[in-house]
Amino acid sequence: MPNVSHDRSTVLATLLPASEVVGRLGRGFANAGHELYLVGGSVRDALLGRLGNDLDFTTSARPDETERLLRRLTDNVWDVGKDFGTISAKADDASGRSWLIEITTFRADSYRSDSRKPDVAFGDTVTDDLIRRDFTVNAMALDVSGGDPGTWRFVDPHGGLDDLDARLLRTPSSPEVSFGDDPLRMMRAARFASQLGFELAPQTAAALPAMAQRIQIISAERVRDELSKLLLTDSPRAGLNILVDSTLADFVLPELPAMRLERDEHMRHKDVYEHSLTVLEQAIELEKRRDLVDGKPNPHHRSDLVVRLAALLHDIGKPATRALENGKVTFHHHDVVGARLARKRLTALRYPKDVISAVTQLIALHLRFHGYAEGSSGGLSSGWTDSAVRRYVKDAGDQLEHLHILTRSDCTTRNIRKAERLRRAYDELEFRIDELAKQEELDAIRPDLDGNEIMRILGIGPGRDVGRAYQFLLDRRMDAGPLGPDRARDELLSWWASEHRTE
């Protein structure tokens, strides 16, 4: 096991802010007769000079002993991962900085061919543990058992340091064994390619298509989480291409490769799949730009999963709606069909209901703006009526900002004049929304009378008629703006009278 001095120095320099906590843990475990290693992504990120506040360790101690030691050495402990050998904790250093600690007993587990869950087995040495890691760049460790940083020992039995320098993703054991042990590692390969900007080693890439179908034994929740992590990277294109090229997407997100078979309606420079990746990239840039603070990147910015899912999936209805009309390819109603397909797929992947609702809403609405753009000639009096703008805002609801991002990102034309016209049209629409919002509180559009007032004015009790009256007043509010209580009362009574005349 090499102990490369300059690399050890790099790790030590990056870990300096954490050295107090790491040293405390190392001494505590060593005094109890146990080994403790900083491991995996923590070592990798330390070598890359970008360690965060999360510290991952592996130890010879069994989970009960790890929990006992952490309760003495840290501030808060939780054991939700205890069945898998993991105990977590929070530790504060003298400066008040908090560190999230995760310590896992040496592992030697694997999947059975017919199982969605691993057979949890504990190993006896760090060597047993490291060879079970997903990639060599995550199979390096730092022995911190001595406590004092001067005694820490760099452990790299699988050449992870060389692969880190070469920016390669290679498995410690053969890819077939590694992916067989945990098929989710195939998706992690795609995610790390995007997250780290690394390439797949030839053996790693070659194993993916041959083993892709084995991803089906992994639970939908774990697949979902890995897909989300990929989408939340700064540059997800590389990872998504790996999923599609390797046929992994055929099993986890088949709507994605299906788009590769379709040309967009312009039949020119992009297919629907490439168009969708471009929309995703543009959405990410807009998401970041719209979260600037004083014109600078927001250090607390969080990647937006709803925006990214909607951007990636907004055109998944096109393959099912493709038709030829007068020699031209059309995709009529692909927004409606796409929303339905997205709901089905995201439900199968066990996404939360609020995420599914938001994404499908955005997909269903992503074409609405084009009716405005087609009616706009560049002046603020063109395009939609105020009523149509109100309905756009009302239908978007709390997804309006996301809809702004998605709609602007959906312009990928190489026609500079057309792109500029669409940009100006959307600038105009946003200006009109802002102006109406100042006047009318568009974000909370409701009728001028509530249900209780409707029942009192009409002299009726709860029932279907109250809902019909409420919808009438909401439509009038959309068409005419705020009516005020007196005018709303008069129009309600007039409508009620006309309804009863027709009956």
TrEMBL record:
Supply the EC number(s): 2.7.7.19
Q: Which domain of life is it from?
A: Bacteria
Q: Which Gene3D superfamilies match?
A: Beta Polymerase, domain 2 (3.30.460.10), cca-adding enzyme, domain 2 (1.10.3090.10)
List required co-factors.
Answer: Mg(2+)
Q: Which GO terms describe its molecular function?
A: poly(A) RNA polymerase activity
Q: Which residues form the HD/PDEase domain?
A: 268-424
Q: Which UniProt keywords apply?
A: ATP-binding, Magnesium, Metal-binding, Nucleotide-binding, Nucleotidyltransferase, RNA repair, RNA-binding, Transferase, tRNA processing
What top-level class of enzyme does the UniProt entry assign? transferase
Q: Which CDD domains match?
A: HDc (cd00077), NT_ClassII-CCAase (cd05398)
PANTHER family under this entry?
MULTIFUNCTIONAL CCA PROTEIN
The protein in question is named: Poly(A) polymerase
**What organism does this protein naturally occur in?**
Brooklawnia cerclae
